[in-house]
Amino acid sequence: MIRIRLLCGQRRAGVPRRLVIERAQRKKLEVYQGYSEQPIRCVCEIKDEDAEAKTVETIMPDGHVEMESKFKPGKGRALVTFGHSQHIRKELARRFLRRADGGCPFIHHDENTADSEHYPLAQTWTINLNKRFYETFEQIDESTVDGFRTFKECMKKLFSPAEVDNHTVRCYKMKREHLNPELVFIGPRDFMEDFLQDSDTQNYFSLSAHMHGFQSWCIPEGKWLPRAKNFAWGDAMAEEVVLFTREGNSSMTVMMSKQEFMVDKQLGVKV
């Protein structure tokens, strides 16, 4: 039903905004009127169409895998991460690094980090470097970006040092501060899960929730069929998470930890 509605151009399914706000507040969630941001991103674009397809795990700092997807390199298709440094605790990283298939390329672990309690992490996802991206972002000096080195080393593990040359990994900053007027919902992970079990709430956000997380639906720009991304709840029941609508190549409801959200975003007025 969500797919049919999106094909008809109806994202919110007629569910009143006020109803969703009231239900969120009854679940003890905070609601804010939008947010502003001017983020920095590191991207890896390998233009070789013959490069091998890879499995991309979006690993969160708390150790759970938010999304998993297939990525086929090519011109205009890239992997991306935050510009700020991220880390994952040693005990959480262990299960990824000990895998029989050769470890995990998204966690940087070598002789320099062997005795550390935290390992550098590249929380990676896919992006299309299209006209809209270049109209929105401008390239900046990578030496000013904290997360650049970790991301580049991780990309060398995912692909190879030969494929990841000096021009493959680049850094970009949003040209102007962006104001997103869509509602932002914040609260403990268990309260958020309870909030998203309601059918009207799911229709409002164009998502389908289940016991392990939820699927969020959208129609990417230039496409006509709806697509979904999976988001996992994670194990930290009391962790503060943020549910919001991300704008870009599509309009999609997404979730991240409050700690990650507040690094490069500023909340609007509390409702």
List the topology elements:
Elements: H1 2-7, H2 17-26, E1 30-37, E2 40-44, E3 54-59, E4 65-71, E5 77-82, E6 86-89, H3 90-97, E7 118-121, E8 125-128, H4 131-136, E9 137-140, H5 148-158, E10 169-174, E11 178-188, H6 189-195, H7 199-205, E12 207-210, E13 213-218, E14 227-232, E15 240-247, E16 251-257, H8 258-264, E17 265-270
Antiparallel strand pairs: 1-11, 1-17, 2-5, 2-10, 3-4, 5-8, 6-7, 9-10, 11-15, 12-13, 13-14, 15-16
Overall residue-averaged pLDDT value: 87
User: How are strands sequenced across the largest beta sheet?
Assistant: 16-15-11-1-17
Number of continuous helical runs? 8
Q: How far is the N terminus from the C terminus? A: 30 Å
The residue ranges in which pLDDT falls below 50 over 5 or more consecutive positions are: none
SSE order, one letter for each helix or strand: HHEEEEEEHEEHEHEEHHEEEEEHE
Judged by helices, strands and strand pairing, the structural class is alpha+beta
If you compute it from the alpha carbons, what radius of gyration comes out, rounded to the nearest whole angstrom?
Answer: 19 Å
The coarse overall form would be: globular
Beta-strand share of residues:
35-45%
How many beta strands in the DSSP annotation?
Answer: 17
Question: Which range best describes the helical content: under 10%, 10-25%, 25-40%, 40-55%, 55-70% or over 70%?
Answer: 10-25%
Largest sheet: 5 strands, antiparallel
Please, how many domains? 2
